[in-house]
């Protein structure tokens, strides 16, 4: 057993040392992306985010447990960002049901998509999982807003209750599609390299 295998097999609680290291690294990248402004691009009334990318990488390389923990950090940072640098929809995103819960759920679903694709080509599976995982992330966030905070959304955006669904759908497509494309392009090569380094696809 080499040093890398030994390090990866040691456990602290229910996590291996390698898993803890990856969680710490990708969580730090998430926070740095947010603090430097590279992770959030403001396109009113929402913010297009690349902050979900480290979460996707975590899930597709190390599995749902690691992905969900990095996603939790992502959600907590979103909560912090909406508190310290509010935008028009921050009153909604200050609720953890919107800012945190979807960020914990979507990496699990992205991982399940990756595992359920029958093609042997890992690159293709990662590409699809990153794209659809991002779409799911958008759907979870915006769906929660629609079903739980539709009236508040309408008030904040001056939409009517009759067309609030179409407004949310339009924003989901116009913001979510670029995020999904960016995720597929960025996540795929990084995840391939990491999985190869860690011996995931032998």
TrEMBL record:
Pfam families: ECF_trnsprt. The keyword Transmembrane helix applies. Keywords: Membrane, Transmembrane, Transmembrane helix. The chain crosses the membrane at residues 20-41, 53-80, 92-114, 126-149, 169-194. GO terms for molecular function: transmembrane transporter activity. This is Membrane protein. The lineage of its organism: Bacteria, Bacillati, Bacillota, Negativicutes, Veillonellales.
């Amino acid at each position: 057993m080499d040093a890398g295998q030994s390090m990866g097999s040691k456990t602290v609680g229910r996590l291996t040392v390698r898993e803890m290291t990856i969680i710490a690294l990708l969580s730090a990248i998430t926070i740095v992306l947010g603090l430097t402004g590279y992770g959030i691009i403001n396109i009113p009334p929402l913010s297009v985010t690349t902050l979900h990318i480290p979460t996707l990488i975590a899930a597709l390389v190390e599995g749902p447990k690691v992905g969900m923990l990095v996603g939790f950090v992502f959600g907590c940072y979103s909560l912090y960002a909406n508190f310290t640098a509010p935008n028009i929809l921050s009153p909604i995103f200050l609720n953890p049901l919107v800012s945190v819960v979807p960020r914990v759920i979507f990496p699990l679903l992205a991982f399940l998509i990756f595992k359920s694709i029958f093609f042997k080509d890992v690159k293709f599976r990662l590409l699809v999982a990153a794209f659809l995982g991002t779409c799911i992330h958008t759907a979870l966030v915006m769906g929660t807003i629609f079903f739980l905070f539709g009236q508040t959304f309408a008030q904040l955006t001056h939409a009517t209750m009759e067309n609030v669904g179409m407004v949310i759908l339009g924003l989901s497509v116009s913001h979510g599609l670029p995020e999904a494309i960016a995720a597929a392009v960025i996540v795929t090569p990084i995840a391939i390299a990491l999985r190869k380094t860690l011996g995931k696809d032998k």
